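Task: sequence design from structure.
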């Protein structure tokens, strides 16, 4: 077949395809290939005809042969693209992407519109395959191509928004490249919007700021975006809220941050970040109770803020609400989404603060939990402050040897650290080595004089060292007063001051004031509450005593606050209100059912009310729990006497007199019972009874 005949056959094949005579076209092409097996057009026509005859494998093979022969010719690539587009096979998608890439290369210097069409198809394909980064990069190339021409601003805006949609929800597992591409898309979309300001533009700005807030290393960009949005939309609080949260999370409490909190509060008084910001300001100003109130309120509205939970826990620790502080730390740890970067730093801060709060609780279980918290802190072994806390935890668990080992290491490596000497002081104090404890606490105070706890423990050291140091105003009292001045929320030191004024100075009025202050600071402090009530009764101020007891009992859960129920019950008993006394003493027994004194008092209340049977049971219960309570045994006999059970009463009186021969009430009761039995015998004519 000559060249002329080959051309004629190819023309016939083209005509056959045009007339949809695909089998005829195949014949002509095969004839050509017998003569010229590498004829590009013949392979292209075979691919086209086979595709129309629904023979995809043959079509694919023909197109690929053509591509191999002439890789820079369009026809075969276009044919492959059409073939793959019609296929619903999953494995074809990757091949189609390669075909589109080649077509883009071939159209690059030619037909711009076709290049854009293919580029759009490639974006859609990547999107279907969930290859969002590739889709976004291709979309960016499309934008750049359009920017070279006279593209409409609105078209470019839509393409930038498409890039945002592709990347916005898919940056979690991607690298920095994806993040940067998304941010570039946002910035360009914001700049290419038709109407500024507008609701759409405002929403786009919100999305941009929300996106930036997820990237911990884009804080400078975030600040700029928030400030730019505030300039455009001065009445919208959203950028101020995000900026406030940024300042809170970054731990940056600069003048700029405080202005931001203030501005947000002025704009929206109910805004969570604004209220949290005010709480942090209060914490800075040492207004701890106000800080707790504001931070608690703010976190009810914005609870996923680890830094705010940390500041709340710190404020609670400052007012010695140790258990509440631990709870806030736990909430802060839950709010940490990913413990990396700044979040890891907050995790370490929160865990350390939690351990400090647990140490203040003081029991062995809390100490064990503190040790577990410290074990989770990164690089904890190299931090002397954490080592000091660990030492205190061991001490609270009763592991004095381990605590001493840490103390020695700290004193050797960090001799100028106050905490090193304080730990040594706590260990000596726990072992009642008061002279050594005195030296240690004085060393700690020399290095950190503003720590109230060191003065308090030095005062306690003097209190227990000897009667001389206890009574010396320049020793125990002086240190307690310094501690109270440094930390006016430290309830325990006011309790010790109350002990001093009551037991040493004999000043009941001043002692009561100290106990009152201690109890106001810590309503769980039974010693201070009881002492305040007792002194109020002694000073004739029963109204104040009752006000304390009423306040405690109103808030008390069932089975708690025994001391308050007991004290009020005894008051009602003394003032002739037996029914109220019974109710309160029963509540006290729910808290401690094995208190013989409480059972005895309940018996007295029942007796005053005339409930003899229940009074008898109460007195018997008291004597069972403590056989040495002679009064309860006597009262049980007296009730039996009232009930006419003279023989039982006589037996009980005799038991009392066997151990206490001169117990006059029992002698009197025994005589009365014999007399009543004799009278009964006479009335029944049993003369010789």
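Answer:
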């Amino acid at each position: 077949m000559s060249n002329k005949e080959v051309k004629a056959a190819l023309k016939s094949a083209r005509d056959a395809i045009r007339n949809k005579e695909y089998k005829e076209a195949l014949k002509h092409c095969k004839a050509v290939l017998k003569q010229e097996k590498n004829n590009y057009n013949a392979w292209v026509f075979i691919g086209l005809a086979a595709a129309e005859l629904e023979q995809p494998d043959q079509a694919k093979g023909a197109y690929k042969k053509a591509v191999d022969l002439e890789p820079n010719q369009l026809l075969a690539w276009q044919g492959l693209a059409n073939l793959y587009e019609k296929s619903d096979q999953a494995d074809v998608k990757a091949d189609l992407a390669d075909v589109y890439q080649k077509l883009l290369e071939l159209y690059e210097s030619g037909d711009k519109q076709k290049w854009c069409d293919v580029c759009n198809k490639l974006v859609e394909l990547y999107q279907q395959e969930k290859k969002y980064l590739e889709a976004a990069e291709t979309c960016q190339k499309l934008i750049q191509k359009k920017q070279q021409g006279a593209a409409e601003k609105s078209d470019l805006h839509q393409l930038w928004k498409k890039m945002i949609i592709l990347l916005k929800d898919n940056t979690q597992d991607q690298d920095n490249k994806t993040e940067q591409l998304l941010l570039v898309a946002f910035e360009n979309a914001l700049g290419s919007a038709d109407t500024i300001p507008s609701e759409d533009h405002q929403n786009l700005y919100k999305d941009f700021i929300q996106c930036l807030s997820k990237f911990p290393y884009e804080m400078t960009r975030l600040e700029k975006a928030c400030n730019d949005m505030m300039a455009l939309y001065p009445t919208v609080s959203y950028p101020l809220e995000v900026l406030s949260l940024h300042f809170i999370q970054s731990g940056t409490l600069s003048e700029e941050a405080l202005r931001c909190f203030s501005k947000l509060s002025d704009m929206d008084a109910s805004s969570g970040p604004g209220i949290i910001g005010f709480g942090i300001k209060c914490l800075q100003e040492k207004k701890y109770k106000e800080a707790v109130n504001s931070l608690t309120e703010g976190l009810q509205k914005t609870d996923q803020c680890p830094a705010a939970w940390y500041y709340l826990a710190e404020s609670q620790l400052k007012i010695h609400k140790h258990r509440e502080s631990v709870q806030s730390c736990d909430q802060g740890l839950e709010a940490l989404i990913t413990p990396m970067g700044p979040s890891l730093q907050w995790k370490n801060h929160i865990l350390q603060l939690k351990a400090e709060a647990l140490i203040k609780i003081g029991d062995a279980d809390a100490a064990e939990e503190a040790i577990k918290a410290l074990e989770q802190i990164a690089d904890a072994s190299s931090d002397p402050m954490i080592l000091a806390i660990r030492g205190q935890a061991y001490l609270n668990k009763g592991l004095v040897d381990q605590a001493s080992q840490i103390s020695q290491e700290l004193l050797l490596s960090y001799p100028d650290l106050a905490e090193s000497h304080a730990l040594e002081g706590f260990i000596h104090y726990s072992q009642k080595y008061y002279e050594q404890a005195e030296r240690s606490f004085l060393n700690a105070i020399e290095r950190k004089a503003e720590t109230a706890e060191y003065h308090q423990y030095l005062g306690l050291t003097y209190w227990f060292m000897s009667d001389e140091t206890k009574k010396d105003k320049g020793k125990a009292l002086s240190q307690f007063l310094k501690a109270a001045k440094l930390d006016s929320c430290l309830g325990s030191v006011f309790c010790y001051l109350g002990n001093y004024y009551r037991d040493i100075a004999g000043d009941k009025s001043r002692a009561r004031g100290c106990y009152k202050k201690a109890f106001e600071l810590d309503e769980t402090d039974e010693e201070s509450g009881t002492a305040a009530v007792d002194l109020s009764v002694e000073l004739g101020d029963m109204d104040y005593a009752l006000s304390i007891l009423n306040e405690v009992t109103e808030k008390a859960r069932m089975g708690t606050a025994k001391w308050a129920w007991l004290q009020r019950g005894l008051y009602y008993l003394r003032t002739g209100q037996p029914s109220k006394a019974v109710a309160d003493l029963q509540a006290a027994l729910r808290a401690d059912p094995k208190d013989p004194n409480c059972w005895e008092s309940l018996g007295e209340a029942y007796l005053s009310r005339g409930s003899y049977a229940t009074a008898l049971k109460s007195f018997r219960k008291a004597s069972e729990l403590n056989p040495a309570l002679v009064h309860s045994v006597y009262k049980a006999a007296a009730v039996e006497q009232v009930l006419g059970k003279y023989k039982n009463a006589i037996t009980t009186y005799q038991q009392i007199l066997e151990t206490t021969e001169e117990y006059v009430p029992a002698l009197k009761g025994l005589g009365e019972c014999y007399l009543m039995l004799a009278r009964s015998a006479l009335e029944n004519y049993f003369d010789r009874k």
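The chain has 38 helices and no strands.
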